Prior knowledge:
The chain has 498 residues and is α/β, with parallel strands linked by helices. It folds into two domains: 2-209, YjeF N-terminal domain (Rossmann fold); 212-497, Ribokinase (UDP-N-acetylmuramoyl-L-alanine:D-glutamate ligase). 43% of the residues lie in helices and 17% in strands. The protein contains 19 helices and 21 strands. The chain has helices spanning 7-19, 24-43, 59-73, 89-97, 128-138, 178-181, 185-189, 212-215, 246-249, 252-255, 267-273, 296-304, 319-331, 340-349, 367-374, 378-396, 430-442, 448-470, 477-497, and strands spanning 2-5, 51-55, 78-82, 102-103, 112-116, 143-147, 169-173, 176-177, 191-195, 207-209, 233-237, 260-266, 281-285, 287-288, 291-292, 308-311, 335-338, 360-363, 399-402, 407-410, 415-418. The strands form three sheets. The protein has a twelve-stranded mixed β-sheet, sandwiched between helices. A seven-stranded parallel β-sheet has the order 4-3-2-5-6-7-9, covered by helices on one side. It is elongated. It starts with a strand and ends with a helix. The mean pLDDT is 94.
Amino acid sequence: MRYVLTNAEMRAADEFTMESGVSSRTLMERAGKAVAKLAEKALSYLSVKSVAVVCGSGNNGGDGYCAARILAKKGVSVVVFEAFPPKTVECQLENARCRTPRINTLKKGYGLVIDCLYGTGFHGTLNERAAQIVKEINESGAFVLAADIPSGLAGDNGLRAGEAVRADMTAVIGEFKAGHLFNDGPDLCGELRVCDIGIVLPEKDYMWMYAPKDLCALFPKRKSRSNKGDYGRVAILGGSERYSGAPLLGMSALRAGAGYVRLCVPDCIFSPLIGKYPEAILKKMPSKNGVLAYDEAALSEIAAQSDSIAVGMGCCKDREIYRIVRYLLEHFTGTLVLDADALNSLAEFGVNALENRRCTVILTPHVKEFSRLCQTTVQEVCENGTALARAFAKRYGVTLMLKSNATLISDQSRAAVSSAGSPALAKGGSGDVLAGLTAAIAACTDDTVLACACASFILGESAVSLSQTLGEYGVCASDLLQEIPKTVKKLESLARIK
C-alpha cells in the first residue's frame, strides 16, 4: 500500500523529514541519484546515449543539476539546459557544483531528455518561455524522463492548461501525487517509478493506493463445508424497456463469488431474460411506462432476503426509481449500492434522502453523475474531486466511489485510489459490471472502502488483460464477465501464499 499526497502534504512531509535531522541537501542528493539511476537504465535500451537535462529555477531544477553531475561522473555524455536562473539556495548550490556543458536551446539528437523544469508545486499556465521549452522537449524525439511530475501538469489534480511535457517515464519522488493518477496525468506521466528518498510522513489520514496483496484477504480459501448462503445474497434491481440488457451485466456478482444472485427486473422485459443467465434467479417486478415501478411488498421481500442490493443499472431517471431508493434506504439493513439512474434520480428528486437510512450505502458515480449530486460543474469535480468526494461522503455518511481514469474511494474518514483500468472500459455497460462486482464483494465484508477498491481492481485488471488480446477498441462489457474469474483467481492465489 502506498500513499497519495497533495502538494501541501508533500511539502509538510519534506519539512517534517528535515526537522527529523535530514538536511535539504541530503534529500536533493538522494533525489538526484534516483533520477540518474532511472536515466542510466533507460539509456541501456537506447541507441543514442547523450543526455540533456532541462533545469528550472527551484528545487526540481536542483534535482536536475544533481542528476547531471552524477551522470557525468559515471561517464555519460550529458549537457544542461539552464531554462531559468536558479532562485532557491539549494538550486544555486547544485548549479555551482554541476560542471557539465550548458546549452541554450534543445535540439534533436539527444537520446534522453530529463525534465526538471518544474515540480509538483506547479499550477496555472506556463509562461511563454516555459511553454516554448516544453514544446522543444516534446518535439525532441528523445526518451523523456520527468523528475517527480511532467512540467505543466498540476500535482494536485493532474490537469494541464496549455503545454505540458509528455513523458515516457516519471520518477515519482517519495510518494504518489494525485496529479500522477487523475485527469491528464496518466497520459502525460508514462511509466511511473517510485523513488524512495527517505521522506518521513507526519501522522495523518493520507489517501492511499491498495496493492493486490492488500485486496486478496477478501478471497480466502473456501471451506469444504460451505454453501451458497455463506458467500453473500445479492439482488440486482435494474433494467427497463430501453436498457433491457443492463441487469445481466450485474451478473458479474456471480463471477466475483456471490453465492446467490437475484435479478429483479420490470415485467416488460422479464420474458426475454428467461434463460439468458441460467444461474440467476429472476424476479418479476411491476413496471410503469417501461420502467421499474414502486411495489412495497416486493421491495420488502427483496430487502429481507439480501445481504446487498445494487440499484440503478439501466433503470432510467424516474420518480418511481427514487421511491424505490428511498424505501430501501429507510428499510434495508444490508449494503445498498446505488449506481447510474439511482444516482440520477437522487440528484433530480432529492439527495437528502441519504440522510434517512438504515443501511450501509455505496455510491458509484462517474464524474458527470457526481457533478449532478453536488450541483456543481464537471470542471469543478475534475479540479477538486478529492476534496468534494471526501466532503460528500462525510456529509451523508456514505462510501463514495468516484469513477474516472483512476477511481477515488472515500468514506467518512478514509480515502483511497484505485489506478487499475484501461481505456477499453470507456464503453456502455462497464459501470453495470462494476456495480455487480461491488455488491458481491460488499455482501461479505463490512469494510466498504476495501470492497470498492477490490471491485475497481478486478474490473480494471480484467480490462487490461482483455485489451492485450482484443485491443482497447474491441472489448465489450459482456467480455468482462468471462475475464473476471481469472482476475479473482489471481487474488485467491495471493491469499493462499499469505
